[in-house]
């Protein structure tokens, strides 16, 4: 039964080529619908890997796109609140856009003045709202956004050296921040109030983090890959 559950449908290997800005990191996210979102300069391209074709393009950013992330599946929808395939994207101007992918239209657009977007992720494992988006901005600023109303639910500050974060898919309260020489583990993330500064792990004896994240298949585990100085 486990083997059947983990079996991946056969698909021919394909190479998908897109143009990206030399000044921005490659922004790619694979969604639960089996579609691939990719930032191509100031346009988000939606690709279908099964046929290696572009099925949609989202135009609205005025700067190069740095992050794309699919919204989680909305199980609870009806005629009053219809289903919408959503995507969040951020550019190097600090602007975050929430997209209606099917209609290629902008749902909302917002930003934190004077700050770039360093990392971005939808908040899952909760039944309060499907519109919550957690963002790590430059200057160490962390903001929990309501992506539908463009409201900031709360704001706090962390170490400015952090370049990414990972949210535990099994526990809403657990959060990891990573930087060139430090990992911070937060155990009191909440939707109601800002979290306290987490426990820091100094890794100055390592060159850089290759991978640090919560795995999606096993609870209470942490995957960290490090390149150690010799």
From TrEMBL:
Domain WDR11 first beta-propeller: 21-176
Listed Pfam families: Beta-prop_WDR11_1st
SMART domains xref list: WD40
InterPro entries: Beta-prop_WDR11_1st, WD40/YVTN_repeat-like_dom_sf, WD40_repeat_dom_sf, WD40_rpt, WDR11
Gene3D superfamilies the record matches: YVTN repeat-like/Quinoprotein amine dehydrogenase
GO cellular component: cytoplasm
Domain of life: Eukaryota
Record-linked PANTHER family: WD REPEAT-CONTAINING PROTEIN 11
Annotated protein name in UniProt: WDR11 first beta-propeller domain-containing protein
Organism: Paragonimus westermani
Origin organism lineage: Eukaryota, Metazoa, Spiralia, Lophotrochozoa, Platyhelminthes
